[in-house]
Design a protein that fits this description.
The chain is of the alpha/beta class and 293 residues long. It is built from 5 helices and 12 strands. It has helices at 100-112, 127-136, 166-190, 211-221, 285-292; strands spanning 34-42, 45-54, 59-62, 71-74, 77-78, 83-86, 117-120, 139-143, 196-203, 226-231, 247-252, 268-274. The strands form 4 sheets. The chain has a 5-stranded parallel sheet, covered by helices on one side. A 3-stranded antiparallel sheet has the order 3-4-5, with no helix packed on it. β1 (34-42) and β2 (45-54) form a beta hairpin. α1 (100-112) packs parallel to α2 and α3 packs parallel to α4. The longest helix has 25 residues, at 166-190. It is globular and about 60 Å long. The relative contact order is 0.10.
């Protein structure tokens, strides 16, 4: 086909492909994907092959000038990210979607409603969900699932342990090890998807620990995306921003607010959550419950 490029290489080598057609970037408006096929040839015969795709997409922070705040730039162009907090709940399967079509319908619905992004909140979806985001054209801000800080006896709860509390210290060390391992696994599993532009490590201080080391870990593993270390900075005395990552993020309910510029330190001011508004449709269980109250 026009613009196709091909090359033959031996195992454990790298090759650069040159195409006769100009490169096309991936954007939510035009989610162009470059298809690829790899063939394993033995003695002149194709014994195995795999089809895949890739995309050309960059994301970065453009520093603010004067009174202007920093901005997200996608492929070098300022982009306003307007999205929905997507927790991935389903009425029949809870965290499990009923079908591939259902995954597709959620992403298409977000675009039809005028959004260009989803923040995948405290959940990792099946690969097909991100596949659809790549093909439909929707930016993804991916959370690392994390547990609330609490005194419950649970191996993933990361409570601060005192020197004489051996059980709590063991739970914390075990939880921290699992968190790091699963964070690395999440990034490794999803880093090939061009739709993902940001990794979120902690939400509202839940399980907050080793923030600088984990930020460095994600940056080293994937320097091509933004990192939101502490999503949900609210105010001094509550969960506080630690000055890490590419953004300074707040959660504001119910009305939207901008993060105080004084805390940005050159980072992107980012409203991670607001609203919490609901619509009780006629005939729904929510509407029936309200009538009985």
């Amino acid at each position: 086909a026009e613009g196709c490029a091909a090359a033959t290489l031996k195992c454990s080598t790298e090759v650069t492909l040159a195409s006769s057609s100009p490169p096309r970037a991936w954007t939510p408006e035009e989610p162009y994907l470059h298809r690829a096929r790899l063939e394993l040839v033995v003695d002149g015969a194709v014994v195995d092959e795999v089809a895949t795709y890739t995309a050309l997409r960059t994301v970065a922070i453009q520093p603010g000038v004067g009174v202007a705040n920093a901005r997200i730039v996608l492929n070098g162009r300022p982009t306003f990210v307007a999205g929905v907090l997507d927790q991935g709940w389903w009425p029949d399967g809870l965290y499990t979607a009923p079908s591939d079509r259902a995954l597709y319908s959620d992403i298409v619905a977000a675009k039809r409603l005028g959004f260009n992004a989803l923040r995948k909140h405290i959940k990792v979806e099946p690969q097909r969900w991100y596949w659809w985001a790549d093909w439909v054209g929707l930016l993804v801000l991916q959370d690392m699932p994390c547990a609330r800080m609490s005194n419950e006896r649970h191996t993933v709860v990361l409570t601060e342990a005192t020197a004489d509390d051996a059980a709590a210290k063991t739970r914390r060390e075990h939880g921290a090890h699992n968190f790091r391992r699963e964070l690395e696994a999440m990034v490794a599993a999803l880093e090939a998807h061009p739709s993902i532009i940001m990794w979120t490590i902690f939400n509202e201080g839940w399980s907050h620990h080793d923030a600088r080391a984990l930020t460095d870990l994600v940056r080293a593993r994937d320097p091509t995306r933004l990192v939101n270390t502490d999503c949900g900075f609210r105010r001094p005395g509550a969960f506080e921003d630690h000055g890490l990552g590419d953004v300074v993020s707040i959660h504001s309910y119910p009305q939207p607010q901008a993060p105080p510029v004084v805390f940005s330190n050159g980072r992107l001011p980012f409203l991670g959550e607001f609203g919490g508004l609901g619509l009780a449709l006629a005939g729904s269980r929510v509407a029936r419950a309200r009538r009985t109250m």
